[in-house]
Amino acid sequence: MPILGEQGQDAKFQELCCSFGLEPSNIPQHVAIVMDGNGRWAAKKGLPRVMGHKQGAESLREVIRACADFHVHYLSVYAFSSENWTRPAEEVGFLMKFFRELIAREIPKLHKEGVRVRILGDVEGLDKDLRDLVRYAHETTENNTVMQFNILLNYGSRAEMTLAVKRLSNDIVAGVIAAESVTEDVFASYLYTVDIPDPDIVIRPGGEHRLSNFLLWQSAYSEVFFLDTLWPDFDRVALVQVVAQFQTRKRRFGGV
To answer: Per residue in 51-74, pLDDT tens?
Structure first.
């Protein structure tokens, strides 16, 4: 797999960081976001909930561009959880149609910008035409190196870990790996996020203070930011503000 971030710390990047008061040597490698608050944003404006999702897509486009500009190598977003199927059928139907349109429309643009796209989650639980679009996104952007954009779709962290346990158990029974050889790194290799570094930052806009079954294993030592800003109002400046706060924190990973 091609190495991400081959653009290096060029003069333009250094100047950009300086203009926002950021330290170029301490940019997070991986930012993960729970995109929350679309429905409430729409309700506050007297609009249908689906309009919140459309505006949220605009915020996502801006954040992707900002991550590329600031050399964040991995961006992961919680697009649709395995629990979201319980939402009203009209909203679920809109979201599935919306994902189809977004993938078909945005992949060529992201490919042109050098973004590698990965859809993570229970892809087999999606309709065939959406699965085909997932395959198209993966194959089209496979060799891109500017950054990796992970879309967590039909995803739940507990389900991810349960599936990993099943696959690991099968390999132990089959003699592929010895039980005594299982380490944290070995277990992590059975997760959807294999070959993806753990997030340095987890951001949840929308005013809620919980992870909602999002990257529970991977975020063990992430710096977590809960924001009152609703996702459709989240933008480049909001991301930079979080990164600036991140740069003031001392990450000890259990040490002193």
So the answer is: 999 999 999 999 999 999 999 999
| pLDDT over 90 at 222, yes or no | yes
Task: Tell me the CA end-to-end span of the chain in Å, nearest whole number.
Answer: 36
Which domains occur in the chain, in start order? Answer: 20-156+196-246 (3.40.1180.10)
Give residue-wise pLDDT tens across range 59-112: 999 999 999 999 999 999 999 999 999 988 988 998 898 899 889 999 999 999
> Which residues are annotated as catalytic?
36, 84
The backbone region for 108, taken as left when phi is positive above 0, alpha when psi lies in -120 to 50, beta otherwise, is alpha
Q: Model pTM?
A: 0.93
Q: Which residues contact 89 (CB under 8 A, 6 or more apart)?
A: none
Q: If you average pLDDT over residues 156-172, what whole number do you get? A: 98
> 34 Cβ partners below 8 Å, 6+ apart?
78, 202, 203, 204, 205, 206, 211, 212, 214
The Cα–Cα gap between 70 and 23 comes to: 11
Torsion of Cα atoms, 121 then 206 then 87 then 148, to 10°: -20
